[in-house]
Amino acid sequence: MMVQMRSLFDEPAKAPAILTFEEAQRQAQTCTKCRLHQSRTHVVFGEGSTRSPVIFIGEGPGEVEDATGRPFVGPAGQKLTEILESVGIARESVYICNMVKCRPPGNRVPQKDEIEACWPYLEAQIKHIKPKIIVALGNVPAQFFLKTTEGITTLRGRFFPWRDGIEIYCMFHPSYLLRNPSREPGSPKYLTWQDIKKLKERLDGLL
Ligand code: URA
After folding, report:
1. Distance 87 CA to ligand 1 centre (A)
2. Which of 44, 68, 72 has most ligand 1 atoms within 8 Å of CB, for mutation?
3. Residue ranges for the chain with pLDDT beneath 70
4. How far does the centroid of ligand 1 lie from the alpha carbon of residue 203, in Å?
5. Over the Cα atoms of the chain, what is R_g?
């Protein structure tokens, strides 16, 4: 009798299945895939409308977000809400989340391996929401999605095709505006006002 021997290498490498939104939400709550879980108080998965054509993505939760389990509710979050409202976008009408779901200690920038460990959750959010536009807030999400080392100053205010018909739109992180309060032409605040108006026009054009 012929015995069919299968080598380990016969099996095509399968990409891990993409989690459903609900699976991602559930698994993230008890996730220990990276060191950030050790110091977290709450997992900050994301919030807002899952029917939104746009997702705003920040770096990672800060102190208030870690304490409450909600994204962008501290000072940077208040600034983001203000920016959205300045063009008539209600915060609840869009989806808001972060590259990593647990707070990096001392608000440091999330590291590459932490972002990679958390990617399945963000990927599930994107697959479920199917946005037309992802707004990358600051260098961390902008450089991750665009696979570039260009800085946010060069990337901001521009739409870049990504995948599945989704465009990446880069803006300054709201905490950068808190550190640079000038409204002079050319200032981060002034440029962000231009950028949010441009985004609003694009969103209006989608309807
Ligand atoms: N900064 C971020 O990048 N995300 C938050 O949720 C809060 C502050």
Report:
1. 21
2. 72
3. 1-14
4. 23
5. 19
Q: Provide the 8-state DSSP code for 156.
A: B
Retrieve residue 29's tokens.
């709550």
Helix axes 188-206, 75-85, angle to 10 degrees: 50
**Residue for token digits 């479920």?**
128
Report the alpha-carbon distance of residue 42 to residue 101 in Å, rounded.
Answer: 9
The CA distance from 55 to 21, in Å, is: 14
Every domain of the chain and the residues it spans: 21-206
pLDDT for the residue 24: 98
- Which run of H or of E encompasses 176? helix 174-179
Calculate ∠ Cα 195-196-202, nearest 5°.
Answer: 95
Cα separations (Å) of 186 from 189, 192, 197?
Answer: 8, 10, 15
The predicted structure's pLDDT at residue 16: 77
By percentage, how much of the chain surpasses pLDDT 90? Answer: 91
Q: What does each C-alpha distance from 42 to 52, 55, 175 come to in angstroms?
A: 25, 21, 21
Domain covering 21-206: architecture: 3-Layer(aba) Sandwich (3.40)
The ligand 1 site (C-beta within 6 Å) comprises: 58-62, 65, 71-72, 74, 76-77, 98, 175
Longest Cα pair distance anywhere in the chain, in angstroms? 83
